[in-house]
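Sample entry (319 residues):
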Amino acid sequence: MTTSWLPPPSHRAPNPDESESCAYGPDGTRLFVRRRPAAAGVSGPQVILCDGVVCDGFIWKYLWDDLPSVGPVAHWHYRGHGRSAAPADSDRIQVVDFAADLDAVRKHLGDPSPVVLVGHSFGVQVALEAYRLRPEKIGGLVLCCGAPGKVTETFHGTKVLAQVLPKLISWVESRSEVVRALWSRMPTDLSVKLAYLMREVDVANMRPEDLKPYVEHIASVDPTFFFRVLHGAGEHSAEDLLPHIQVPVLVMAAERDSFTPPDLARRMAEAIPHAEFLELVGGSHAALIEQPELVRTRLSQFLRERVPVPASLPLADHG
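Predicted structure, serialized as tokens:
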């Protein structure tokens, strides 16, 4: 259904081929969904894009326009993120809850077969748990710049974040009004400059205008919610699932990813039967928008060569 209550995001122009609607999670949480059809004559698999924590699609800027040449594409906002509603049940913010929402989005899209789940960062964990929840009709997984779990134990190569996060959550909750006020006033341009100065992004390839939407969205998210979701991601692991995945998998890692170091992705690929691995040389955690042409080429090749054509369409129509 069309949803007039959804204001247009400020950082992108409307696309005439794009439609917007809402799905509902198991607890009734309203979830924003946008979709684009495949290009004329193309019959590839349905792709669903899954964000990182406190992201609302900035990482998919280029793939959003590229993927219709391979098949239909959809993107959704997590509960408490972007244009989705806050969780109807404030305690349902674990990885398994986001995975259940993803399953609701699949059904909202008509439960297409096959569907390919593409996850970035936290979205890797969400996609893996969604596969565990209901592997039927999933034709492939694309896992980008992420790990199967315990991500707070490897941030910048240390366990410091995992150790301090519980205390940080308690501190933020005890000062929620003050922290929220300061958090929301974070200067966008200053934050972008800091990311460049600290080399958290590939300064040679990251465009400042591509990073600004991410910083702006962080400022709009409740900090207590953010840290609680991050804590849940750090406690979660889908490592036990990896040897049992029975669909084609493409794992992408970035050489200079300080959030989820590439060795984690490499080990994940080695644990999954017949998974392919690609390291984006020089890339940071945001490598998908730093190296969009390489990412598009490799992802399109994977979708065309390894994911089955939708059963209802003839092989000759596969673009």
